[in-house]
Amino acid sequence: MPKRDKQKAAVAAAKPKNVKAEKLQKAKAVRTEKAKAGKFAKPTAAKAVRPKKAEKTKKPEKVKKGADSFEPLAMTERAQLISSKVVYEGPLFRILHDKMIEPGGHVNERDVIRHNGSVVIMAMDNSKSRKNPWIVIERQYRHAANQFLWELPAGKLEPGEDALAGAKRELAEETGYSAKKWKPLVEYYASPGFLGESMKVFLAEGLVAGEAKPEKDERIEFRLVKLSDVLKMIDKGAILDGKTLTSALLYERLRAGKHKK
User: Fold this and answer.
1) C-alpha of 46 from chain center
2) Fewer CB near the terminus (10 Å): N or C of the chain?
3) At residue 188, what are phi and psi to the nearest 5 degrees?
4) What phi and psi, each to the nearest 5 degrees, are found at residue 125?
5) Is the C-alpha dihedral spanning 242, 143, 115, 111 positive or negative?
6) Lowest mean pLDDT, pick from 47-61, 148-162, 166-180
7) How far is CA 206 from the centre of its chain?
8) Average pLDDT in the 12-34 region?
9) How do residues 30-46 score in pLDDT, each as one tens digit?
10) H-type alpha helices, the chain
């Protein structure tokens, strides 16, 4: 090599290399090669991604609506009695002063009338017309109401007496009638704010007449009235007795519902 060329090579080697410029050039070259390769590369179909199966979700529990939502809680929700004192006792009922822990934890005191319970009889003669049967109703003076009232036959149960047996006894005593067919209609509490009297209503059909044997203090006048007329008496306000209103109106609603089906 000539002396002059050796000097040029030595000078070139002595100069510092531009590292950054070299990196940029290499990156540019790589991009150019990839671009060229992309022009001639065969397109490949993208793999379809299968959607994941949705996890099974629990169906929400059906919320009860309407009448189904009003389940009786009598057997599960009861007060815890702390103390009970008899403040009055008579032949028909007794009055207690109770201290209790009510459902929900609230401590309270109540005066309650305790009673053996009563039976009500909706006695009917449907031999001539099932659509408009004759109903046995009574008229007697009620001192608490200070007036005469039209009522269905009814009476107090004896201690430990079966309700159906009591209903048959009361119907016979007050009206003389017996019945071939009996079935329960409804049970309710007339005034549960202070009165613990349960009233069980029975339907009595297939009436057989007999001799009435009312108690000494009872002055009862009874008659048979068509159901349609009983309902008219209710509409006019001529019947004010709660058990008669409840029984007659409920029976009519149930009867009307059967005819619609």
Assistant:
1) 59
2) C
3) -150, 170
4) -110, 105
5) positive
6) 47-61
7) 35
8) 57
9) 566 655 555 444 545 44
10) 3-14, 19-40, 163-175, 227-236, 242-260
Q: What sign has the CA pseudo-torsion 78, 79, 85, 91?
A: negative
Report yes or no: 102 and 108 within 8 Å, Cβ to Cβ.
yes
Identify whether the C-beta of residue 160 lies closer than 8 Å to the C-beta of residue 178: no
Containing H/E element for 151? strand 147-151
End-to-end Cα spacing for the chain: 123
Structure tokens at 148: 């005469």
CB 87 within 8 A of CB 170: no
DSSP assignment of 181-203: EEEEEEEEES-TTTB--EEEEEE
Query: How confident is the model at residue 14, as a pLDDT?
Result: 47
Helix (H, G, I), strand (E, B) or coil at 84: strand
Residues sharing a CB contact under 8 Å with residue 250, sequence separation 6 or more, in sequence order: 185, 186
Strands (E), 58-93: 80-89
Do the Cβ atoms of 109 and 190 come closer than 8 Å?
no
